[in-house]
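Thread: Modeling a multi-component assembly for a lab meeting

Hi all, long-time lurker, first post. My supervisor asked me to bring a structural picture of a complex we are working on to next week's group meeting, and I have zero experience with this. I have the sequence lines for every component (785 residues in total). Could someone generate the structure of the whole assembly? Inputs are pasted exactly as I received them:
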Amino acid sequence: MGLTAESVGLGAAGVRREKNSGADRVIALAGNPNVGKSTVFNALTGMNQHTGNWPGKTVATAQGIHRRMGLAYSIVDLPGTYSLLAHSAEEEVARDFLCFGGADAVIVVCDATCLERNLNLVLQTLEITPHAVVCVNLCDEAEKKGIRLDLGALEAELGVPVVGTSARSERGLDELMNAVEGVCGTASSLSVPVRYPAKVEEAAAELEEAIKPCAAGRVSTRWLALRLLEMDGAEPLRETLREHLGEDIFSHPALEGARKKLEDAGMGREALRDRMVSCIVLRAEALCRAAVLRPAGNQEWQRRLDRILTSRLTGIPVMLALLCGVLWLTITGANIPSSLLSRGLFWVQDRLTDLFHFLGAPEWLHGLIVLGAYRVLAWVVAVMLPPMAIFFPLFTLLEDFGYLPRVAFNLDHCFKKAHACGKQSLSMCMGFGCNAAGVVGCRIIDSPRERLIAILTNNFVPCNGRFPTLIAVISMFFAVSGPMQSAVSALLLTGVILLGIALTFLVSRLLSATVLGGMPSSFTLELPPYRRPQVGRVIVRSLFDRTLFVLARAAAVAAPAGLLLWGMANITVGDVSLLAHCAAFLDPFARLLGLDGVILIAFILGFPANEIVIPIILMAYLSTGTLVDYGSLASLKALLVQNGWTWVTAVSVMLLCLMHWPCSTTCLTIRKETGSLKWTAAAILIPTGIGMLLCFLFSGAMRLLGLVP
Amino acid sequence: MTTVMTNLQEGQLARVVSILATGSMRRRLLDLGLIEGTPVECIQKSPAGDPIAFAVRGATIALRSEDSSDILVTPV
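Re: Modeling a multi-component assembly
Sure thing. I ran the full set together rather than chain by chain. Output:
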């Protein structure tokens, strides 16, 4: 749930080609996913980061500056990959940067608890560049598991520095950067990290001689010769090479002869690839046998935990209980601070009013600034801040613990039935925080068809901007008063979320059966080991990175929206305010949906940020009604009921809140991620259509049954 | 006795005999270290019985039945 300016698309406008201006050295950071690569990155660069796109590619790489002993190191965080043999856009970006990005050195981050698998990437990287440092991260975790590592032995075998780190506690980073400085600019020749079968070596050596004139000095000729032998020329690498070498090396005359020799030796392209990968895997295995000592049976508690969290009997119930528990904690915990905040902020409003009157300011200015901008802002802060400050850290704790991939594991079967990818659950989880982040998160899905499905359906997960609306409506209209109140609210909210999830499956299946036809594709899902979350860090990080960021965004929208709204409520055309005109215009249609014109207008004006929907509704009603106590839900409910709300209105509002157009940021992000206006329109129309249809059917049915007037 | 990886029971150990998958899935499986002779263990079936999580070279990897049925293994 990486919620940063980049992940929600705010960086879109500012994406620039990184020129590394002012940096003395450029260091690439490579590594498998889930090895703490971004922790290393954050520890090295601190807050000194920005994002940029590697030219011509859509996959963003984060960049940051690390200063040390008078030198500025530009650290480029490459996408996490298992391999550089390019099955995906991420692998291409990582490989192209390592080959042609002009980095002075590369740090390959490895997971100390799972070194063997990680060495695959290390060995492949060393074939490309000798200016590498292996960073064996998570040493603290390995220690806890009783895994003993002989990094010296590994270093001797690999021929490049190997440094152990625990980036979360910033251990070993100084040694790491020392080693990096050591490999920068040295004329060390390329080692041969992996030996292939004699026939392959022979063919590669011959080809290497032939291509040296055009490739030497720009890219490792051994690596290039090996790739030329195993690739069929249809890969994007051909274009990249043409760009950087100035000629189409795949049509080199020596290539055909070298390939022919291998084929005569019984090694077609497929067989050759297999042999090469096997050699790398076996080399990694041998390296680990010499350098890693694993105690037997050390993973017992992990397995036991998995049996509880993912088994047939308990997997799904535990998952639902966790969801409900998190929501319950959020609602219960947010109650008191929310009402304290709103009392405090509205006390300030009264003092502001006093001040304006004391200064003799004109009434319209007081209205615009205090009753407009300030009041909506105060509402957003009071309603949004407490649930976010509780929900985000709780969610980050689960994420840190390693639970989210287990959700994907539990739900994958449903996604397979819907002809979608199981990793879609992960982007949905991100959607709980922010749908724009969820849409960006869909990059983890390799198949373009399945990625598009995940993007189009992400909005069915209510984001943090919509939770407060749902919670407020549930608490006002459905929760019994008393000690069970938050428990009932949490259960109902869980129900709403489950409806969203059910619709995600349904719409995914419908899309697969129609415009996005196709069968589910293959994928592998890694279940990383559970880790003890770092509670203190998680709270600080999620408060600053996520809560404050989302709040700032909401506030930036809320204040101007308040201005606009107050204006609309107070500028009259023929005795009726603009707001009333608009509401009256939408009213007949809104009534069909079980709503009223004001509610529909609030959703429309809430396009920049869903957080302001309820404040707008209240404000619009307030221009005709009165509100005695801003802090109490009972008086809010009274105001709504005065304006004709029934429990059917409340349900319809929740349905529309769950299913309507994505907010403006999300729409921009979808446009950026899909590169298509057509799909952006689909992402708006699908949830809006379904939401309105369900509202219409539900309120219509209730009217027919005579349950409401 | 050779079987496909899908048929392993929870806790059962086996060795990879060969990978039948082709194309990018084949490379992905090979990259994860699933080559001939690699020891694997069936760790955990998901609530619906599919996908299944396997221990492969120190990592835990979940595979859908379509994919794990493309991997031939001999239980040990």
